[in-house]
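Students often ask what a 'structure token' actually looks like in practice. Rather than answer in the abstract, let us consider Protein zer-1, a protein of 791 residues. Its sequence is given first.
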Amino acid sequence: MAAKAGDNPDSLMTLATVFCLRNLRKTMCYQGFRNKLCMRSDIFLPSEICDKLVNTYMELVHTDSNFEPREIFFQLFSDPRSTRLTRVQLRENFVLDRDLEAIRKQDLIELHLTYCNNLSSRSLKTLTSFRETLVSLSLFGCNNIFHRKGAPLACTEDTEDEDEDDEIPASPQTLETDFSFQGFNRLRLLNLGGLHEDVEAENLLKPLRSITSLDLSNVHLQGTAFLTQWRDRLASLVLYNVDLSEELVSTVLELVNLRHLDISRESRRNTKFKMTRKILTVIVQRLVNLVSLDISGHIMLDNCTVPHFEEAMGRPSSEPCKSSIYPFQELKRPLQFLGLYDTTLCNVTHIPAYKVTGSKNEDQVLNAIEAYTEFRPELAHRAINQLFDIARIQHCSQLLRALQLVIAALKCHKYDKSIQVTGSAALFYLTNTEYRSDQSVRLRREVIQVVLNGMEQYQEVTVQRNCCLTLCNFSIPEELEFQYSRVNQLLLKILEPARQDESIQRIAVHLCNALVCQVDNHHKEAVGKMGFVKTMLNLIQKKLQDRTCDQVMEFSWSALWNITDETPDNCQMFLTCRGMSLFLECLEEFPDKQELHRNMLGLLGNVAEVKSLRPQLLTPQFITVFSNLLESKADGIEVSYNACGVLSHIMFDGPEVWTMDEPRRDAVMDRMWEAIQSWDVSSRRNINYRSFEPILRLLPQSIAPVSQHWATWALYNLVSVYPSKYCPLLIKEGGVSLLEKVLELESSQPETKDMARKVMEQCETFKEDPMETNNGQETAIGGLGSRRPGS
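Now compare that with the structural description of the same chain:
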């Protein structure tokens, strides 16, 4: 069988790394003085393992809500005699000054810090510890690293260390002036994207003689001539969102060894500079080594492209001589990469590049997401939005790539609301039925993880709605079971009373209902302890106050029906939280709502199955209500059937518990007989039994013949209408031998015995011809593990 998209398993290295990080104390560490976690003395870890541990740790911190960050984690790598770090990538505000200080003795070759806004100038001092070995350094988006920490308001005594300073934000007014890149002689790749405008890039970079790759995205340059000091070395220059001028273009043209040049912008709206045919031509002519060029976001003058009637001829080609863009006809070979996002040039036919970013088609959009996700979320957000339109209106032909790119963006920018909104919306369409058959279990689990991350991080309506809708694309509960507790907690949080958005409320209740529909009892009990029952009853109470019976009301009762099935603790919670009062109020307020009545009576059937709880139902008010509902024709026989089931369990406790004068026990039993005799035994049912145990216990007894008759009728109806489903279940649970005992009992009524024989005959017939399916009429209702309405 062919592998599905995204089905490649994790490597053994990855699995072992994650296991060790989740079990540090059991694997690499021991608990030392003052419970401090220490690396075991008999361990030496090479750089390949240490790098993987640190980088995977950061990924888990950002993407796995069940993973607990450890304050002293980086201290484990403080001694290069037992651990070796060489390539480290750290991101976001989890990273503190003390973390870098902990690894200052390591001979780092690569250090990439991204959006680490809690780092201050203390970390600049730490950077000097790596100056003799560092080859690649990124400080992208570390807005405060060139500023000192603000001083504490008061200081009465010395502290043992400077860890407390990590909680003090860097002061934008206190610029660090002492730091220099002097001595960073091996540094080749440097990313200073987002460098604070108060820091003069020219003075900062002056000591660096060997730079081959420089990223100055969003940096304010007071002058540009300093770039020429690397004219013979610089192979990559990124000037994203740097204001272009004739002076800057002239300087760039002197960097003749450039292989990658990025002079793109976020948007055409924010620039006065116009990209002319002359400028593009001279770039191509002078920078002959270029293999990658990004000019996204620039205003392009019309004279850059060939006339439409000419360029439309022939199939799209990447040959420079056929280029629809005049300046690129000067290229000696196609570019490996060409950024044309948010330009008119991406729409032409012949583009001399193997990979192009733009908005013309799916390939260009996916290339844009891939190229811009890490450092340009503002562009990635727009590209994902365009992918959303492709998946929604057209058809996504590169499904695996699209899903992987959106997942990567959502992981990378967990705290970026715009990415979370557009990404979750795109996932909804990329995981729907049209694409489902091509997706592996592993890939779909990754989708679920990032969706739940978004739900955790953002309480905003659009994100929550998108995430809930995306979850509806999965088989519930099967595909969500690996995150069962987490998803239930998030949904219950959404359904807190303060939430007023009706659409989210409706979807969340539907998901809650589906999640408790087909699961084992221990799952239901765990969810009950989370406050599930109380949450549903709060929703019902709110709807009663509004005098509204809508899907939220009906789904809430259905969810309560499911979660109380064979779970006495949840049944007790229902009674404790005024469930019976709400039941009576709903009956009175909504007398004609058939589905509501069926759901409520199904729930009360579960409560009545619990012997210790039945005394709470044995009141004149409740018995009168149940008796009156015996005559209900709502939803076929379902309401009458469930009301009779409740009374059958109560009658089974015997006449001695019936302490009320009215209604009389015998009068209620007479009404039960009348109701059962009025039902059509061939009725198709909107109910699903996973076990007959609550019914079977009513068979071999003489306390309440009417209860015995109800149970026998229920079995006959189910095995005759749905033989292939219920005959095996009845045989498996020993029902046939119990029916034989019914025939032996003198107290059993003749009609009951007659029906018992028919049930036994039906089971015997099924054993002889197990392919019998009642003329193919049986349908799946609800699902295994539930007695609930079909959804």
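One point worth highlighting: The CA atoms of residues 445 and 787 lie 28 Å apart. Ask yourself how you might have guessed this from the sequence alone, and why that guess would often be unreliable.
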